[in-house]
Specification:
alpha/beta; globular; five-stranded mixed sheet
């Protein structure tokens, strides 16, 4: 059974973050905006613990970051959607701006185009494929 767990962990992609995103996200885990996000903050903290952190100029342009515009596909449902990952204060689902503390954003941040991720959403575990990532130049 331990071998199975190790195989699953080994096959799960490791998130890659910029130092600035890592710092912002880590600060959010230390002082979450409200009590409703406790579970999400714990999930985000686990992802940050295993993340690779690089300088801004050392990270691929197709990696999902804070402010990224992302097109994803639910692999099972074959449904596509476009979102932007934003800070909690900027979130507005009406215009597809999803907080970094939302389960969907936690599932995507730090991964790149072509990656497939499984993540626990309120409706159950979903398999998502990252189709495209657009990042504004932040230098």
């Amino acid at each position: 059974m331990n071998n199975l767990i190790m195989t699953i962990m080994k096959d799960k992609p490791i998130p890659t973050l910029t130092l600035s995103d890592y710092t912002i996200l880590r600060d959010l885990t230390k002082s979450p905006p409200d009590a409703k996000t406790v579970k999400e903050v714990a999930q985000l903290s686990k992802e940050l613990d295993r993340a690779i952190v690089n300088k801004e100029d050392k990270i691929d342009a197709n990696i999902v970051r804070i402010q990224s515009h992302v097109e994803i596909e639910d692999i099972v449902a074959k449904r596509k959607m476009k979102i932007q990952i934003v800070l909690p204060s900027q979130s507005d689902i009406k215009v597809q701006k999803v907080s970094v503390l939302a389960p969907l954003s936690i599932a995507l941040i730090g991964f790149k185009e072509g990656d497939e991720v499984d993540w626990e959403m309120p409706a159950g575990v979903r398999s998502l494929r990252i189709i495209s990532v657009t990042n504004a130049d932040r230098t």
